[in-house]
# Entry
Amino acid sequence: MKNLSDEDSWKLFSFYAFRDRKENRAPSHLIEMGREIVKQCGNLALALKTTAASLASNTDLRKWETKHRQLEKAVIPIGEHDPVMDILKLSYDSLPAHLKACFAYFSFFPEDENINCEFLVNLWIGEGFIPAGEEQWDMAWDWLDQLVQLCLLQPWENKEYNLNDEERLIKYCSIHDLLHDLSIHISRENECIFSVEEVSTHTSGVSGWCRILLAKKDVNDNAISSISHSCPVYLCTFSLSQNMEITSIPANLFTAMRGLRILDLSSTSISTLPASIGKMILLKVLNLRRTKIKEVPECLRHLKSLLFLGIHWNCKSIPAWISELKCLQHLECERVDCMPKGISKLASLRTLRSRWLDLSIKEDEFMTLEDFANMTQLQELWLNINHEIELKKMEEGVLVQLTKMRHLSISLKLQSNFPSFPNFQRK
# Structure
């Protein structure tokens, strides 16, 4: 992309720096300094956006003069050094500490990845970035929005598939390649992130400090086996995602990962998990989506700190012992059709996502509509209604006590018109 013209550069800068003002008009005392800052950005769109966003809603001329002085130092190229990266680094440096940690975490994802915002928020919570408390989830989403407002992140909606309206509401985000490079640079500078290959060949200095361990694409079983004896001591996050050549996990791989908080095994060809995973009592996030695991492993019942559990459509049932995971907030089980009654004991559960979830009308081992009505923390629920009894209960308002619900998806499998449910609107 070619550099913008001077006038277009000023328009773009003004849009992000003065977007809260009428017609994006700059205050008269900031125009001259604003024009100088635009020149320092070299008519580069990304530099203009991030710089302007970092000054948005700030009309203190001294702050603008400080930014100008910082840019003067940043744009002096040394050899092949890219001054644009220094400009982007200034935007990072101006972030508060909590947002710096969140931004650096984008190094977890591959380049050009379409990032599921919900999963990202769970990662931040699992890592301990977000203070614990009832408002933890909302705070995480607020921090995500702040990064968007600062033009460090680009949000979008999933509309590329022919899905129903509810599915399209799931938010995704992406990050510019240069900003992604910056997140990697920051993480590596702080000795936080390394690849499996590096740990396998350079254990000295890496094993003590690495915090995030990633497997690059096309890693195989042999490469995974080689790190079982050189695992970083303070490892918090481990990902083998998007490596379909991985078919098994060594039995001793997780033995030294007692402090692990996040484990992402999605998009691999594994069909079983070693029992040692049950010893990772601090684990918060476990992603098993798009694997070949056909039933929820028994060893997971020991993960009492688990907040997020994602399993693939191969798993058609949820074990009754799932009720022992008292901290669980998000359960994603794509094709489970019945839930054991114990699920209603999960007082912290916020999201229960399964497109095939049918209700029971009998007082047996599966959940009825009344059981779901007692889960007052639920914010998202997908249900299929197959019986007139359930339909009548819905019409009578059996779910009205779910006051925190934000997304309720109901699919009728009856020859009946869609009723008007009290206190709910059809999505």
The radius of gyration is 25 Å. Residues 159-169, 203-207 have pLDDT under 50 and may be disordered. Residues 6-82 form one domain.
